[in-house]
Amino acid sequence: MRNNNNNNTVNLTSLESLVQRDKIITIIAIAILVASTFIYTVLGVGMNMSAIEMTPGLDKSLMSMPNMSTIKSMAMKPAIWNFNYSVLMFFMWWMMMITMMLPSAAPMILLYTALIRKTQKARNIFNVVSFFICGYLLAWAIFSVFATSIQSILELQGLMSPMMMEATNTYLSVGILIAAGVYQLSPLKTVCLEKCRQPASFLSDYKNTWVDSPLRIGLVHGFYCVGCCWFLMGLLFFGGIMNLYWIVGLIIFVAVEKLHEKGAIFGKILGCCAILLGLAFLFHS
To answer: Do residues 47 and 88 make contact, with C-beta atoms less than 8 angstroms apart?
Structure first.
């Protein structure tokens, strides 16, 4: 009996050691992916301007130009959308979504990794987890197609600045703020947020598929995440799609909303603030 107990203890210790190793490797992989996409976003790869140059106060090079009419002409330059530019903007959106959303999805990914290890049904843990992450990122790729399409329509209609990538129409700005605020208070937002805030509950709802279909379960979780945050990402149309203040601010907000125990209440407070800000813009326009 004592030998059996010792063997069980050794097996348990070995399993815990493997789970801890998986956790460390997964965290490193997520950090590398987030850092890479953040650098991609900041540099504005393929764009005429970097995110730093599109963020007021971070770069003064434009203000040092001798002829300010040049700046105005750049700002008023009509949008030109072709296939290559559309693909470029899609990747800009997708890389930015990975940067903003993957950190808050880390608890779900880590729990999934640990559960896969404990089932001992997967021959290659990291292949399975990679498919899960790919499914999650695929959901945000689909959102990025939608966001790119909306951006092209707004720029071609003259409602957004092609240079600074922000709304130039007061009513559009008001609509974005109020819509985002109302959605924060909606039942659909609450349902999607709870799926993101409770990874164990989410995986238990799909206990028959999360081992055998990692891509599918990652996609499902990704869609819940999109449903939770898509109107928040819409605020980038108001503040500037590549404005680093807004990007970093939304990263922090999403993390607090999903990970903090009072995150749901915090999200509703922000929703009310967005509505009030939208009304203030409307009354002072």
So the answer is: yes
> With contact defined as beta carbons under 8 Å apart, do 249 and 255 qualify?
no
User: Distance between CA atoms of 180 and 229, rounded to whole angstroms?
Assistant: 9
Size (the chain), residues: 285
* Beta bridge mates, 160: 167
pLDDT of 12 higher than 60: no
User: Helix crossing, 244-259 with 214-239: angle to 10°?
Assistant: 130
93 burial (CB, 10 Å; 0-12 / 13-18 / 19+) is buried
Please give the backbone phi and psi of residue 184, each rounded to the nearest 5 degrees, phi first. Answer: -60, -25
Look-up of token digits 């999360």: 210
87 DSSP assignment = H
Tell if the pTM clears 0.85, that is, is over it.
yes
Please give the DSSP secondary-structure letter assigned to residue 211.
T
Task: Answer whether 34's CB lies under 8 Å from 98's CB.
Answer: yes
Query: Which residues neighbour 154 within 8 Å (Cβ) at sequence distance 6 or greater?
Result: 160, 167, 172, 237
Two structure tokens written together for 246? 């807004």
Q: Could you tell me if 246 and 239 are in contact, meaning their C-beta atoms sit under 8 angstroms apart? A: yes
- The dihedral built from the CA positions of residue 110, 32, 209 and 231, taken in this order, carries a sign that is positive
Q: Could you give the CA distance from residue 228 to residue 193 in angstroms, rounded to a whole number? A: 5
Which neighbouring-strand residues pair with 167? 160
Which of 111-120, 190-199, 202-211 is most confident? 190-199
